[in-house]
Amino acid sequence: MSKKCEDFIYPEEIRKYEKELLDFIVESGKNKRRSDIESHILGYFLVHQSLTQKEIQILSTKFRSRRISSGSISNFLNQYTSYEPRIILKEKVPNNKNKFRYYIISENIKEMFAVGKEAGVNVLYESIRNIKDILKILEKLNPNEKDIKLYNIILERTKELLVYLEYHLSLFDNFMESVIGQEYSLKKGTRIQRTDSKFIAKNRNLKSIEQKLINLVLKSELFIIEEIKYHPVIAYLITRKSLTQLELKKLTGLSAGLISEGLNYLKEQGYVDIQKVQGERQRRYTLVSVGYFNFLKFYKRFKNIAHNKFKLERILDELNKKEDELGEINGYNVIKNRVEEFLDQFNVIDFGIKIFQKALEDFKKVNNKNKW
Asked: Within 13 A of 60's CA, how many CA atoms are on the CB side?
């Protein structure tokens, strides 16, 4: 596919609506902890489908306060062209062996969402494999007497993580089958289990096992929170369930002020509870249920996207009213069609809100006898 260099720069009358659409995409990306740069470049591809590195950089001068560097663009393209399933493809530009054009995998937003969700399922499946490996090591471990209490907590939380992940995978499978249908159902049969034998062979002490869990939580898209600077705090609350500020300071190496800010943030979001334990001077901060915390997080993200639906409706309404004036201008149909496709996907968002609401009911916070 060839295109004139100027074709991807729409006239100012259209660029106004393109910016509003990109703002919606970037805001939605923040809910998944995508960086501003990553969200912008994804947005450019969702609007234009096909771009070179130079064209991406030019678009960034139109829609960001700062131009995206060539290095950042290369990092993004290397990452997204190596994902499985593939999200972006590349091919050489004819007669120019050092230049590539990049294509989003599908021009259809629904298919793009499906590819993204399938990638999410792959992350879930890989996380289950890793947690099973860790659980296998823990169950064979003979801890020292002084480590028994910590061992029992980590063992309990690892089992809880596995229950959450398997529930989430089942939820995601049902979600994807409802959205995509039979084609997705057939793909489930192609999954292959693997074992991380190197880790099993080399790690036999409790601290190294916990560190493996912490690393998994810190790196996984499943456990991300909107404020990344507080991520180590939530990671240790996932493995240890209940900690004081002083204990968190020792474990994370973060400053007392940052930990205090993080705990206040997590409390405001409804992720942790505060408990005053008799005989202890410091309050304990408790993440009662791993499943409840994660599904509350996903539920809030979907609700936030749904809340911004009116922005797309307003764009479409204005474009429809100005069709006689703008209809023949380059980019009008592209932006209008993209907005309509995004709006068509809000049934998926609404369905996601319902299933995460059901998950919250299943993982509701109760007393310590809760099976989760």
From this structure: 21
Query: What is the token pair recorded at 211?
Result: 């560190």
Q: What is the mean pLDDT of the chain?
A: 85
Domain borders along the chain are 5-105
Q: How far is CA 124 from CA 172, 238, 289, in A?
A: 9, 17, 18
Q: Where are the alpha helices (DSSP H) in the chain?
A: 12-30, 36-48, 53-63, 70-80, 109-140, 148-179, 182-187, 197-202, 206-219, 231-240, 245-252, 256-268, 290-307, 309-321, 323-326, 332-344, 346-362
User: 64 pLDDT exceeds 60?
Assistant: yes
Is the CA virtual torsion 116, 122, 126, 131 positive or negative? Answer: positive
Kindly state the average pLDDT of the residues 13-25: 94
Distance, in Å, from the CA atom of 67 to the CA atom of 37, rounded to the nearest integer, reads 10
pLDDT, average across residues 148-158: 95
Distances, alpha carbon 144 to alpha carbons 108, 151, 158, 204, 251, in Å: 57, 9, 19, 12, 20
Q: How far apart are CA 265 and CA 286, in angstroms?
A: 13
User: 262-282: per-residue pLDDT in tens?
Assistant: 999 999 999 999 987 777 778
> Which one-letter amino acid corresponds to residue 9?
I
Structure tokens at 31: 């809910």
How far, in Å, CA of 172 to CA of 149, rounded?
34
Tokens read off for 308: 């911004």
CATH topology for 5-105 is Arc Repressor Mutant, subunit A (1.10.10)
Residue 44 amino acid letter: Y
205-231: pLDDT as tens digits: 899 999 999 999 998 888 888 888 999
Closest CA to 24 of 8, 40, 45, 48: 40
Q: Which of 146, 360, 364, 368 lies closest to 242, judged by CA?
A: 368
